[in-house]
Amino acid sequence: MSEVIIGVDGGTTAVKAVAFTLDGEIYATHHESVPVNYGPNGEAEQDMNLIWEAVASCLKSVQDQLDGHEVVGIGLTGQGDGVWLVDEAGEPIRPAANWMDGRAGDRVAKWTEEGKDAKVLEVTGTSLFSGLFPVLLEELREKEPEVMARAATQLYCKDWLRFKLTGERATDYSEASRTFFDVRDASGYSESLAADVNLTDALSLLPEVRHPAGKASPLSAEAAKITGIPEGTPVGVGQIDVAVTGAGLGAVEDGATWLILGTTGFVGTLLPSVAERKSDLSMVLATGNDAQVLEFMAPMTGTPNLDWIRKMLGFEDAHWDEIEKSARHAGPGSHGVVYLPYAAPGGERAPFLDPNASASWQGMSLTTEREDILRSVYEGVAFSLVECIETLEVTDDLLVSGGGFRSDLICEILADATGLTVVRQDAPEAGARGAAVLALVSAGRYNTIPEAAEALGASTQTFEPNADNNKLYRDAYDLFLETRGALRPVWPDMRSLRKQTN
Fold first, then answer.
1. Are 389 and 413 in contact (CB under 8 A)?
2. Crossing angle, helix 157-166 and helix 48-64, to 10 degrees?
3. What per-residue string of b and e applies to 44-53 under the rule 16 or more CB within 10 Å gives b?
């Protein structure tokens, strides 16, 4: 009987389950969309039970496609950050406030004034933003005290899914790093940090921390009945999506760098310790591998920008290939149109922090065509990544993944603007593949993550920089930064007016 390993990816707007053969080929897959509910004050919430039901449906569909193949394990990953709370019985106390939630923007500013941001950064390696657990938890406690009093455990998205699959409450080093975890020595949750931000009692909400490729837990009888996958199937610990993608791309050793373009952007590098970090503006995750950390920037300027302009310009019924072809008619530089891609309700968190960041176009005139506006969005999203690449001092080839990088145009713009070679994995689903890699180790099929990553590896495609476009894009990129600097002082007033007119 042939064997497969399943990777589950609990994304922000879609969840999926992917079955890989043990030589890395995709055998079966299923995905389902999940909604994000936005509110007038920056709220971004999701129904935790609805996410679980969607994942269970994905697993059932994949199981039904396996034609007798044996499932040797299930790996997990998912969106990070936010507040995902369950009660003593394991039921959600409220919808999850996810990483995009912006309601705590004023609280971020207050924590910064009080110096709490520096304390969080020192211990966890993370800069404050509205969707970060500690600050968002305090916001919700103030606004919904009776509801929040029922909270027993914080389970991030993939931790929630593991709980539903196994009944166990746990997390991994990467997700723990988004709370009060001390990344400097990976010693555990910091009681002193919790005290410094007046949230000592919140420590009781935080679950046990496990290695992302640590010992698997058995699939429960209840979950087996729902999914059709045999009871006792090993379920791995997993990692936050941005970190697990490295395993899916084979980037697992110190010095490895990769980029993701999905609902958010991501540029990250594995370092032997936090002492090697390149910027205080970055975020840092412990990996569980001694003192190793992942230093990264995750701008909130991802593919929702492209989805938004697709809708606004009437391309909703057009295939992305057709949309990209239209954008190419504008040519590099978009005829002087500059787009600032800060459309997320929570503002921006990398490579600068500003909860009031707003999207806009500049440089338009009566001669501006629809194609110019369209291409400017592609360029604005790419320029946001370029800024992170330069801040983290990345000079090697750019290994990329995520739905946004399926666009040849995005890959070409990134190569031309940086002068670096872009390497794209041909096979999709790097996040699910990375979850499967870790699960193979958790299930005892491989002893190390590099061995499992090599076994599930996929071929790649390269995009070489065009020297003729490089100077033009460098000028356009400089103008992008100047335009943002000029508009940033009025962003708070824009946000204020938005609230007044809701």
1. no
2. 60
3. bbbbbeebbb
Instruction: Note whether 403 and 432 are within 8 A (CB).
Output: no
Q: How many Å is the maximal CA-CA distance in the chain?
A: 65
Give the pTM: 0.85
Are the beta carbons of 85 and 151 closer than 8 angstroms? yes
**257 φ, ψ to 5°?**
-130, 140
Q: How far is CA 8 from the centre of its chain?
A: 14
Question: 21 and 436 in contact (C-beta within 8 Å)?
Answer: no
Q: Is 428 left (phi over 0), alpha (psi -120 to 50) or beta?
A: beta
Instruction: Please spell the DSSP secondary structure of 220-288, one letter per residue.
Output: PHHHHHHH-SPTT-EE---EEHHHHHHHHHT--STT-EEEEESSSEEEEEEESSGGG-S-TTSEEEE-S
Structure confidence by residue, pLDDT tens digits, 451-484: 999 999 888 899 999 999 999 999 999 999 999 9
C-alpha to C-alpha distance for 102 and 57, rounded to whole angstroms: 30
SS (H, E, C) 149-216: CCCCEECCHHHHHHHHHHCCCEEEHHHHCCCCECCCCCCCECHHHHHHCCCHHHHHHCCEEECCCCCC
The helix or strand, by DSSP H or E, that contains position 7, with its residue range, turns out to be: strand 3-10
Q: What is the pLDDT of residues 248-262, one digit of tens each?
A: 888 888 988 999 998
Strand, helix or coil at 479? Answer: helix
